[in-house]
Design brief:
This protein is α/β, with parallel strands linked by helices and 332 residues long. The protein has helices spanning 24-30, 51-64, 79-91, 109-116, 133-142, 157-177, 192-203, 225-240, 267-280, 289-301, 326-330; strands spanning 20-22, 34-39, 69-74, 94-99, 120-123, 147-149, 183-188, 209-214, 252-254, 310-315. The longest helix has 21 residues, at 157-177.
């Protein structure tokens, strides 16, 4: 079944389609399956990343509601916040960011880019998931502003439409080559990418398993993460007018690669970043794609994929954060 998304409000701020290429040297080094990579680190805006797919629909809705400022939140090195700041600048909206942590002595990585894109930063201490956004929005409304709130990770049914569309993009690329994909590996955090791809794969006939590598077990709050994914997927389908019923048991999430927790770089991430850089000249980030690629490497070494299978790694971007992790990445 196909679905026409052309009538949904959207701003076009990405360079699409992003490249789909083969990681031949990495596959050879691992004696593993054929590995494809979807290069969402090359979406183009603000040094790239997957969140701009979501922001095309979120900002389309914001502009449709006549908003004059957007608000979102995340960790101090949030890729989502950096891309939101860039996207807001590109369409002429003011941007406010609720960032976890305290002002550092030196702005680096994504934080430096937030500053260069002109975002107003609100420091939130231990709260890194946008907990202070309602307060910020209230203050803006009190002075006559029209804020549009973008949730943590851009992961609501509107933002997740970006990955429904991404599934159609991938299906089109694969149909040209005649290739099939046995599994898609993604970093799974706030859920919009994972749920959107799952719904999109069903809508556009993309026959594959979407396997999420958990980055932070607690991202979805109190409810089990798979329950959160199923709820989000059902709301996406409802928004599209698609008759579907998703259950928690239909989502594949791996929690065995969490290491030291969110944004803690360990041997898994260090090796993955070095291997891809040295074999393919491609950079991963230390928080999301470094962990997801590290998981894929471990899964290949454990024999979870056979040499005759094809696995797709979805590169969700985030390389600017590398510069804030120099000590951790050069540790031996």
């Amino acid at each position: 079944m196909a679905y026409d998304m052309s009538g949904i409000p959207r701003v076009h701020i990405n360079f699409l389609p992003t490249p789909l290429t083969v990681l031949r040297r990495l596959s050879d080094a691992l004696n593993g399956p054929k590995i494809l990579i979807k290069r969402d680190d090359l979406t183009g805006l603000g040094l790239g990343g997957n969140k701009t797919r979501k922001l095309e629909f979120l900002l389309g809705e914001a502009l449709g509601r006549n908003a004059d400022v957007v608000i979102t939140g995340g960790a101090i090195q949030s890729n989502h916040c950096r891309q939101t700041a860039a996207a807001a600048a590109a369409v002429g909206l003011e941007c406010h960011l609720a960032l976890g942590g305290v002002p550092p002595e030196v702005m680096e990585g994504n934080l430096l880019l937030d500053y260069l894109f002109g975002a107003t930063i609100h420091w939130c201490g231990e709260q890194r998931k946008g907990e202070q956004i309602p307060e910020i929005a209230g203050k803006l409304r009190s002075v006559g502003r029209r804020p549009y709130i973008i949730p943590y990770g851009g992961s609501n049914p509107v933002g997740a439409l970006g990955f429904v569309a991404a599934a159609a993009e991938l299906q089109g690329q694969l149909s040209v080559t005649g290739a099939g994909v046995d599994a898609v590996i993604i970093a799974s955090s706030s859920g919009g990418t994972h749920a959107g791809l799952t719904v999109g794969a069903d809508i556009y006939g993309l026959s594959t398993r979407v396997i999420g590598i958990a980055v932070d077990k607690g991202e979805a709050g109190d409810e089990p993460y798979e329950v959160h994914l199923a709820s989000l997927a059902n709301r996406i389908a409802e928004k599209l007018g698609v008759d579907a019923g998703y259950a928690a048991g239909g989502f594949h999430v791996r929690y065995d690669y969490l290491g030291g927790g969110y944004a803690v770089v360990g041997d898994l991430e260090r090796e993955a970043i070095r291997l891809l850089a040295r074999h393919e000249g491609i950079l991963l980030d230390p928080v999301y794609t470094g962990r997801a690629m590290g998981a894929l490497i471990a899964m290949i070494r454990n024999g979870e994929f056979t040499p005759d299978e094809t696995v797709l790694f979805w590169h969700t971007g985030g390389a600017p954060a590398l510069f804030a992790y120099a000590r951790e990445l050069t540790a031996t």
